[in-house]
Structures are given as C-alpha cells and as structure tokens.
C-alpha cells in the first residue's frame, strides 16, 4: 500500500530552536494515527507544517504522490487536508448551521445551490450528533458541543486527511465516549491524525502511535508496543502515569 502522506527530513526552526527536527513520517490511508509526546515536543508545529499553516525550514511533504511542501493551506484543503484547529474557528454569533455552511460553500466551487449547501450542512451536523442544534447560536452551545461543531466543520470539507489537535480537551467523560465513536465513524472514509494527551483515548482509538520528543520521533508502533516501550515510559508515559 502507498502512504497517503509522507514527510522527509521535515524541519522547522524558531530562531535557534529546532521545534521539528528532521522528521521522516508516513501515514497509511484509512488509519487512525495518534501523535503523543511531552509539552513542547513539536507536535502542533509538525501538524501545522502538514496543513500549510506554517512553512518548513527544510524537508519535504508529499500528499497522495504530490509534493505539497510549498503549497498554500487553502490549496491543501482542496486536495483534502483539513486541520480543524486552523480552518474551523467557530463563530460565536452564527448558528451551528451557518458555521458549517461556511466550509460547505468552500467545497462547492462551481454552481452551488441552496439545496446542496443545506444537505451538506445537515449531513455533517448529523454525523456529529448536532442536527437538533442546527439553529442554536454557537455561543449558546456547551463547550463539548462547540468542539463537535469544529469537527463538523472539518468534516464538511470532505477531507481525505482530517487532522485534529487535542480534540477531547475540555470534554466531559460522556462526551469523550461519543467522540471516540465519531472518530471511528470518520475513519471509515478518511484518514485521521490526532494529537491527543488523553492516554485512554489514544490507546482505544489509535491503530498506531507516533511519539514526539524534542522535535524528533522517539518511537512509533501499535498501542501495545508504545505502552511497553521503555524509552517512551521514561520520556513521557512515566511522567503522566507515575
Ligand atoms: N511561533 C513560534 N515561535 C517561537 N517558538 C515557537 C513557536 N511555535 C512553537 N514554538 C516552540 O516550539 C516548540 C514546540 O512547540 P509545539 O507547540 O509544536 O509543541 P507541542 O508538542 O505541540 O506542545 P504542547 O503539547 O504543549 O501543545 C516549543 O518549544 C515552542 O515554544
């Protein structure tokens, strides 16, 4: 199988700091990949490079066989790379429906109709369980529902790769269970890359886990392999699960 996305020697410096340092990475189509690692390990910088939100200092990014290293973010969105954190800041004064209508309209480049927008919006709201909140102002949604609305906005772009940055942060336990179900559902027709600090979520959801430390990949493997990895325990898991 050919990877959906690869990086070669991907690096990003901030002044003298190598936030991402020579990363070789490959993501297979259809997988759910979690990125974990201590604070400041370079996780957000890495996914920001993939989405085009920031530019690499050196290295290369290939998506579906095309070199996208120099491609602006909006073109990557058209290719199917959606980064919720970047694209989908929820507008508090718009309804859930109108928030999702924004990315739906972006996907309908030629000849959009009201009916097409409506069905695209409702499909994304239904998948995230927000259909009955369509008319609610985003500001009046619970925090958990606002996070789900971000996912709905990402889904509305019909991504082939959906990148989620700490999607369960601030969710209640019951909402986390629903979120796990939702991501499994999304992964039936997309590849999912998520940065996640909640270890039970990572262990349940991920097919494979990539561990970042000091801008580099420290380890990669199945949840079982990562749990058993001494270096990972020392650098990260030990610190959070004493
Ligand atoms: N725009 C920036 N300017 C300067 N330094 C930055 C910038 N963005 C990130 N950094 C630095 O790069 C390093 C990696 O940060 P990054 O946010 O990618 O880590 P992270 O693994 O996502 O951390 P966290 O889990 O805390 O979100 C950190 O030392 C951070 O301070």
UniProtKB/TrEMBL annotation:
<feature type="domain" description="ABC transporter">
    <location>
        <begin position="5"/>
        <end position="239"/>
    </location>
</feature>
<dbReference type="GO" id="GO:0016887">
    <property type="term" value="F:ATP hydrolysis activity"/>
</dbReference>
<dbReference type="InterPro" id="IPR032823">
    <property type="entry name" value="BCA_ABC_TP_C"/>
</dbReference>
<protein>
    <submittedName>
        <fullName>Leucine/isoleucine/valine transporter subunit ATP-binding component of ABC superfamily</fullName>
    </submittedName>
</protein>
<keyword id="KW-0547">Nucleotide-binding</keyword>
<dbReference type="InterPro" id="IPR027417">
    <property type="entry name" value="P-loop_NTPase"/>
</dbReference>
<dbReference type="InterPro" id="IPR003593">
    <property type="entry name" value="AAA+_ATPase"/>
</dbReference>
<dbReference type="Pfam" id="PF12399">
    <property type="entry name" value="BCA_ABC_TP_C"/>
</dbReference>
<dbReference type="InterPro" id="IPR003439">
    <property type="entry name" value="ABC_transporter-like_ATP-bd"/>
</dbReference>
<keyword id="KW-0813">Transport</keyword>
<dbReference type="Pfam" id="PF00005">
    <property type="entry name" value="ABC_tran"/>
</dbReference>
<dbReference type="InterPro" id="IPR051120">
    <property type="entry name" value="ABC_AA/LPS_Transport"/>
</dbReference>
<dbReference type="GO" id="GO:0005524">
    <property type="term" value="F:ATP binding"/>
</dbReference>
<dbReference type="GO" id="GO:0005886">
    <property type="term" value="C:plasma membrane"/>
</dbReference>
<keyword id="KW-0067">ATP-binding</keyword>
């Amino acid at each position: 199988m050919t990877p959906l996305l690869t990086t070669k020697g991907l690096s990003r410096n901030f002044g003298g700091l190598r936030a991402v340092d020579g990363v070789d990475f490959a993501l297979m189509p259809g997988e759910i990949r979690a990125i974990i690692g201590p604070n400041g390990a370079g996780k957000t910088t890495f996914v920001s490079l993939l989405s085009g939100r920031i530019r690499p200092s050196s290295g290369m990014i290939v998506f579906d066989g095309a070199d996208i290293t120099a491609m602006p973010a909006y073109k990557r969105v058209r290719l199917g790379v959606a980064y919720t954190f970047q694209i989908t800041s929820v507008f508090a004064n718009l309804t859930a429906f109108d928030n999702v209508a924004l990315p739906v309209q972006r996907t309908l480049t030629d000849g959009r109709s009201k009916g097409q927008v409506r069905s695209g919006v409702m499909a994304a709201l239904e998948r995230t369980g927000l259909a009955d909140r369509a008319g609610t102002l985003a500001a009046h949604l619970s925090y958990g529902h606002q996070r789900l609305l971000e996912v709905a906005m990402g889904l509305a772009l019909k991504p082939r790769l959906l990148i989620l940055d700490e999607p369960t942060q601030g969710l209640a336990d019951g909402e986390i269970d629903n979120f796990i179900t939702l991501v499994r559902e999304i992964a039936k027709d997309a590849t999912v890359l998520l940065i996640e600090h909640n270890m039970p979520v990572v262990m349940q959801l991920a097919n494979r886990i990539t561990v970042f430390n000091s801008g580099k990949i420290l380890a990669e493997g199945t949840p079982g392999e990562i749990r058993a990895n001494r270096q990972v325990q020392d650098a990260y898991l030990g610190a959070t699960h004493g």
